[in-house]
């Protein structure tokens, strides 16, 4: 048929007043023109859309039926839809839906409405939204024709993209009607007959149960709200009939009913992605609506093509606050658990939806018992052990956190290896995220310095993001979650407010509110994509931010993108929409940053249990916790977890053998963790000084295993604070000899560093040994530096001189013009020496020291001809000594030699003693102590031993024991002293200095 003929037909029906002619013309157009795409294009170009819209206002059912059919076909074309909307088709269409009960007309009208909604639902609903929503709900409820209901459901599915329609649809009880129809369509009549026979046979029992039904409900509600209730008490009574009743519903065999079920599932899929208020769910509960027909599709049958859609519907619905009870009552938790446990071939999205459903419903104590009994808890542990997507592991961890107060579940998970699973994930995460978090901590430290925050702020608990979950449940509802944030009394509101069951001595950190990231474990198909900067910036969100910001209406499925070619008599089937692939958040490591806090909380809860898992005492557990403290800081539950492990005496032997005390001491060397590092050591001290700890240390010190002996001796140095007990271990237990033996051994290994640090820790913090030190910057500010200039005279009136005799070194260059050489014979040896003259003022020298006055003004050989001969000193030492005399005469502050001229300082000290200049001697002694380091310590020791200077000897011995040198430098310092002239005396004095301090503390 050509365009001219179409235009002629349109002209005839527009001009005719005879209804039979109009019907005949419309039928001709429907059968011969708008039967395919080309015909629809021809019809639109011939100007047929506008007349058809006008025909929809005709009060003649046959005309309306044919016109609606034509427009239904035409509106499969987008341009035709737009033209129809421009001609205000929604006005007559709304009237038809409201007023004409004819099923065929309703079917055609709903089909047309759906096609129009695919193109522009907003314009269609601009003025008639309430009327259209009410009309569709009425048609769905009252229509007996399956095809009419299907078209009504289809129209609703496309219109639900409009929030106003969604609102009026729910107000008209649309969701209630939809669920009732689904239940009625899938009802298994044969099962109803069996239940009736069973009821008749047990009539007396049924009456008794009905009479006590309120008591059972009360018990279930109490159990549901008791987060810490003992599951073993009510498990049997609550769960004895918890097996899914899979005979209540059945997939209909009739083709029409099956198509209706599929259309309802499509509609539910769209509705499930919208956020609904608690009022809607309360109305569903009052109407006794159930989601059991949807749950029926969750089976492990391979041919079940509706399983994915059903899982997605339930998963999406669980994001609504009020859906908790209706989901629980429909056995959705059992269905998800059974599917997860039974089927190994689930798709990633199906597995994700199962985990999500379990995650939301596991906040209920009864549901947690069902999860445990179904085997899903074991399955979760196995899934985390396997290599899987990080997002899936994060979701599972968010499920497991709900079981932290269920002791039976915790025991089961511990037997399945929960601790090692958590440690493995934490260790992998730390390895991949170490640089990231170091950078973040440095940035935070810099910003803190710029803002000059007070110390109180610096001790805040926001090292990393804290998991905060949305308030999913109404606290007044029987199905309210104990994890709800509505009430501070809930033990599960946060791990920061946990009040664990168990021993009272366990570490319980003061968990104040912190800057936490609002985070929900809810698994969604469409996740917002964030860049790395956005993710990190959320670490310090306002803790008072409203959770409502996270109640975002999800994006609707873009069902309008699918083209549809409807025929006149046969409507095309549409497949159930598939899952939209999730947009993954950018991951910097193995798990999302905020999931680490879940691991933190779970580990802390495990350590709070009365019965501790042996896995807590394994090396990888404690080592990983210490690494986490280094990475995240100590203001986390990792600190509490480690403290609880260290407090447990059963792990003390492992602490000794693994060298944990040495790792804890390393925390004290970092400013941010110093205080807490000492706290951990104090915790271990309380165990080490108890009877069990003392016996364990004594046993290992007496054992034949050399490694155990070394570890025990090192542990004694770190932990024992009681001086009588320390003396007993060091002297009687030979621990001090072992420590020094490890350090002085020619074979250097890991024990060497541990022994050095243990000796330093014991000397400084237990025995109180210290050496006065001057800060380097302050030293430079307070004292000028003496720069030696050999050609410069030290005094303007020089009338005497010092003659310095020094052995001539090979290839030594002359530094002064007054230098000469001489040979000195000593028995058979002839020594070549270089002499250097240093001029000075005789009067100044005599007025400074009586010794110099006697030497220069008497018959002393050294003073003849105004010369003083020095044979054991260097020119540098002499010139520095004379420089001090000059500065003293001018009342100037003393100066100090450069660091590489420490020997000059030591020579000046010796000369100030020989020539009896007390004030100068005291100053130089202070400088000797202040400038002491690893390069000159041995020289000072040997000089003090040689010259019997007790104060300087004691000072150098203390420096060996308590100096804060690097481990390598201190080992070299000890070994150099051990090979010196006074090695035997040095070793004995080291021993005596330590033991004497212990004895003094008795």
From TrEMBL:
Residues 473-546 are annotated as: Disordered. GO terms for biological process: anatomical structure morphogenesis. Residues 62-422 form the ARMC5-like ARM-repeats domain. Pfam families: ARM_ARMC5 (PF24768). It comes from the Eukaryota. Residues 475-504 have a biased composition (Low complexity). SUPFAM superfamilies: ARM repeat, POZ domain. Residues 513-534 have a biased composition (Acidic residues). Residues 536-546 have a biased composition (Polar residues). GO terms for cellular component: cytosol. Coiled coil: none annotated. This is ARMC5-like ARM-repeats domain-containing protein. It comes from Stomoxys calcitrans (Stable fly).
């Amino acid at each position: 048929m050509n365009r001219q003929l179409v235009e002629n037909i349109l002209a005839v029906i527009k001009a005719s007043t005879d209804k039979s002619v109009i019907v005949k013309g419309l039928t001709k157009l429907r059968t011969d023109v708008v039967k395919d795409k080309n015909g629809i294009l021809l019809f639109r170009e011939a100007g047929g859309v506008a007349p058809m819209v006008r025909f929809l206002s005709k009060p003649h059912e046959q005309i309306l039926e044919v016109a609606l059919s034509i427009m239904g076909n035409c509106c499969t074309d987008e341009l035709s839809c737009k033209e129809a909307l421009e001609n205000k088709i929604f006005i007559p269409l709304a009237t038809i839906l409201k007023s004409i009960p004819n099923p065929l007309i309703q079917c055609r009208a709903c089909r047309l409405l759906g096609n129009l909604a695919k193109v522009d639902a907003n314009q269609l609903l601009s003025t008639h939204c309430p009327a259209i929503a009410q009309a569709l709900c009425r048609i769905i409820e009252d229509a007996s024709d399956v095809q009419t209901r299907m078209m009504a459901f289809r129209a609703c599915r496309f219109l639900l993209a409009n929030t106003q329609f969604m609102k009026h649809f729910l107000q008209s009880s649309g969701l209630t009607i939809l669920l009732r129809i689904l239940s009625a369509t899938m009802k298994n009549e044969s099962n109803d007959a069996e239940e009736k026979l069973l009821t008749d046979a047990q009539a007396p029992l049924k009456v008794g149960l009905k009479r006590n039904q309120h008591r059972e409900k009360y018990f279930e509600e109490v159990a549901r709200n008791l987060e810490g209730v003992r599951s073993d008490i009510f498990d049997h009574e609550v769960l004895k009939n918890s097996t899914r009743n899979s005979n209540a519903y059945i997939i209909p065999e009739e083709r029409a009913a099956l198509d209706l079920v599929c259309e309802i599932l499509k509609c539910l899929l769209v509705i499930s992605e919208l956020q609904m208020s608690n009022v809607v769910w309360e109305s569903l509960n009052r109407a006794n609506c159930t989601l059991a027909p949807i749950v029926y599709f969750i089976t492990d049958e391979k041919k079940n093509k509706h399983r994915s859609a059903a899982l997605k519907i339930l998963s999406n619905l669980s994001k609504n606050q009020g859906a908790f009870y209706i989901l629980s009552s429909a056995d959705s938790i059992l269905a998800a658990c059974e599917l997860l446990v039974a089927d190994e071939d689930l798709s990633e999205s199906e597995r994700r939806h199962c985990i999500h459903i379990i995650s939301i419903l596991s906040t209920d104590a009864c549901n947690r018992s069902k999860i445990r009994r179904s085997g899903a808890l074991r399955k979760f542990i196995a899934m985390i052990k396997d290599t899987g997507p990080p997002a899936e592991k994060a979701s599972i961890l968010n499920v497991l956190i709900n079981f932290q107060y269920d002791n039976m579940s915790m025991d089961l998970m511990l037997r399945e290896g929960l601790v090692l699973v958590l440690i493995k994930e934490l260790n992998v995460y730390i390895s991949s995220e170490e640089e990231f978090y170091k950078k973040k901590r440095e940035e935070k430290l810099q910003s803190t310095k710029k803002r000059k925050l007070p110390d109180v702020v610096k001790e805040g608990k926001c090292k990393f993001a804290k998991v905060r979950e949305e308030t999913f449940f109404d606290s007044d509802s029987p199905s309210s979650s104990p994890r709800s944030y509505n009430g501070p009394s809930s033990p599960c509101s946060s791990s920061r407010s946990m009040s664990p069951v168990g021993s009272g001595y366990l570490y319980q950190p003061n968990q104040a509110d912190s800057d936490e990231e609002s985070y929900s474990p809810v698994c969604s198909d469409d996740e917002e994509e964030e860049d790395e900067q956005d993710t990190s910036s959320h670490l310090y969100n306002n803790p008072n931010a409203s959770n409502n910001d996270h109640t975002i209406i999800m994006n609707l499925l873009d069902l309008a993108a699918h083209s549809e070619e409807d025929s006149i008599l046969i409507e095309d089937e549409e497949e159930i929409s598939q899952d939209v692939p999730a947009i993954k958040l950018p991951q910097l490591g193995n798990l999302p940053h905020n999931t680490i806090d879940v691991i933190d909380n779970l580990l802390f809860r495990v350590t709070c249990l009365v019965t501790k898992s042996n896995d807590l005492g394994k090396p990888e557990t404690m080592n990983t916790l210490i690494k986490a403290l280094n990475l995240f800081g100590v203001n986390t539950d990792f600190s509490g977890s480690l403290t609880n492990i260290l407090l447990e005496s059963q792990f003390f032997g492992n602490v000794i053998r693994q060298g944990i005390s040495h790792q804890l001491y390393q925390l004290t060397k970092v400013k941010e963790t110093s205080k807490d590092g000492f706290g951990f050591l104090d915790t271990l001290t309380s165990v080490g000084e108890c009877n069990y700890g003392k016996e364990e240390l004594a046993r290992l010190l007496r054992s034949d295993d050399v490694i155990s002996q070394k570890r025990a001796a090192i542990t004694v140095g770190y932990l024992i604070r009681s001086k009588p007990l320390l003396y007993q271990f060091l002297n009687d237990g030979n621990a001090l000899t072992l420590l020094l033996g490890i350090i002085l051994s020619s074979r250097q290994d890991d024990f060497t560093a541990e022994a050095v640090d243990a000796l330093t820790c014991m000397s400084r913090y237990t025995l109180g040994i210290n050496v006065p030190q001057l800060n380097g910057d302050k030293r430079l500010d307070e004292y000028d530096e003496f720069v030696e200039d050999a050609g410069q005279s030290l005094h303007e009136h020089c009338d005497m001189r010092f003659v310095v005799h020094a052995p001539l070194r090979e290839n030594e260059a002359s530094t002064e013009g007054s230098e000469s050489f001489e040979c000195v014979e000593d028995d058979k040896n002839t020594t070549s020496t270089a002499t250097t003259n240093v001029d000075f003022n005789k009067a100044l020298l005599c007025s400074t020291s009586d010794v110099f006055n006697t030497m220069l003004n008497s018959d002393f050989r050294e003073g003849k001809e105004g010369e003083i001969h020095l044979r054991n000193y260097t020119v540098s030492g002499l010139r520095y000594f004379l420089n001090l005399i000059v500065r003293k005469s001018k009342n100037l502050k003393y100066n100090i030699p450069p660091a590489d001229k420490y020997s000059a300082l030591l020579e000046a000290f010796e000369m100030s003693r020989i020539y009896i200049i007390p004030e100068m001697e005291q100053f130089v002694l202070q400088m000797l102590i202040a400038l002491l380091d690893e390069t000159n310590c041995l020289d000072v020791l040997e000089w003090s031993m040689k010259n019997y200077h007790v104060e300087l000897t004691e000072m150098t011995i203390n420096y060996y024991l308590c100096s804060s040198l690097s481990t390598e430098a201190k080992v070299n310092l000890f070994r150099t002293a051990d090979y010196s002239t006074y090695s035997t005396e040095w070793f004995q004095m080291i021993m005596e200095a330590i033991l004497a301090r212990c004895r003094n503390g008795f």
